[in-house]
Design a protein that fits this description.
Length: 150
């Protein structure tokens, strides 16, 4: 004897023919296409610094540990335009997210590669977010914790 509740009955219920979906509205392009931008391309920029590396800013007195890297500029135009033109970096280079600090405060910085140099001092950083993301190794370097990776 065969039951309606047999092995295949629930499959038939799930995959039974449903009504035809409504026709979707066509997508309209409201912004002009930027002919100087290569859409959906893979960045060919190679980062000079790595996550967990301690770096120092060339122009301003702060240092920090890198916790993320963008292969090219990925912040807002308002942020970019707020930088004085004489020190404004190029957009076509890696940008780094830092847990940064100076002698007065801790903060998160977004810095272009051209403005960073390796920090060779042995002074450990004291940013309060570092212990959540990094483990300090025996050699004094910062290793990203496994739960912090994406």
């Amino acid at each position: 004897m065969t039951s309606r509740r047999g092995r295949t009955a629930w499959l038939k219920k799930i995959f039974r023919k449903r009504g035809q979906p409504a026709e979707a509205e066509p997508l309209l392009l409201v912004d002009p296409v930027d002919t100087n931008y290569f859409y959906n391309t893979i960045s060919r920029h190679e980062a000079r610094f790595q996550i967990g590396q301690v770096v120092r800013h060339k122009l301003f007195p702060f240092r920090g540990v890198i916790f993320d890297v963008d292969p090219q500029f990925a912040n807002t135009d308002e942020w970019y335009e707020s930088i004085p033109e004489e020190v404004r970096p190029r957009k076509d280079q890696p940008f780094y997210h830092l847990f940064a600090e100076n002698d007065r405060t801790h903060y998160i910085a977004y810095v272009s590669e051209q403005n960073l140099i390796p920090d060779d001092s042995d002074v450990p950083l004291s940013h309060p977010d570092i212990p959540e993301w990094f483990t300090m190794t025996g050699t004094g370097t910062y290793e990203l914790k496994k739960h912090a990776t994406n």
